[in-house]
Amino acid sequence: MKLVLQLEHIQKYYGNEGNITQAIKDISFSVGQGEFLGIMGASGSGKTTLLNCISTIDTVSAGHIYLDGTAVTDLKPKQLARFRRENLGFIFQDFNLLDTLTLEENISLALTINKTPLEKIGPRVQEIAASLNITDILSKYPYQVSGGQKQRCACARALVCDPKLILADEPTGALDSHSSQMLLSTMQSINDRLGATILMVTHDAFSASYAGRILFLKDGEIFTEIHRGNDTRKTFYDKVLNVLTMLGGGHNDVF
Predict the structure, then answer these.
(1) Would 29 be classed as within a structural domain?
(2) Which helix (H) or strand (E) holds 165?
(3) What is the predicted pLDDT for the residue at 7?
(4) Strands 88-91 and 165-169
(5) How many separate domains does the chain show?
(6) This model's pTM is above 0.70
(7) Would strands 165-169 and 19-32 be described as parallel, antiparallel, or unpaired?
(8) 21 lies in some domain
(9) What is the three-class DSSP state of 227?
(10) For residue 28, what is the DSSP state?
């Protein structure tokens, strides 16, 4: 399996002399092409810091991050912005859609910023919208559609530039249970059908059960990892809960 993401001995410190916090102690792992990886851990475990470092929003204090062979940790600030645009897709908890643009314009904006030829933008948006079943609402504005439809639009925006890696930060956090289930099914679908490589940070066992593999963080280190393999989602969900119990985290029984 081709590796899309490699982390080698990542460390992250905050603060200054006399008051230093080590958010990430020593984390190494890799993500294969087409994998759906979940990252879980209690507040303060380092999962958000880790996501920020992978997404180039934050820099590491030590170690190396490689995305599709490029040493992200060696890029200059100007190179980073372009690298992020061309290689990463983001799915945020609060959608981050622009209210003054239609859904179609929201999705095509990333292509415009990447200087995609005008004649290619329309067909690409239609193609990705069809795969997410939102073609009929493209002319609407974000305030005219449901939360689930907004989030599918956000998925389309994340996918439209064909990124090497999609980063999802608590993607179901702002959704009700029905919309959450729809979004997670959509994410599983773009992983299965389109081969999208997804890294999702979540505190929610139900969301995590859609992933193929989960890393659990504790105090800035990897506590353990589990693989779904041929398990049903219900069986995998139970395994997630068992690890969370070992970690001392509470849960809601949603099955």
Answers:
(1) no
(2) strand 165-169
(3) 97
(4) parallel
(5) 1
(6) yes
(7) unpaired
(8) no
(9) strand
(10) E
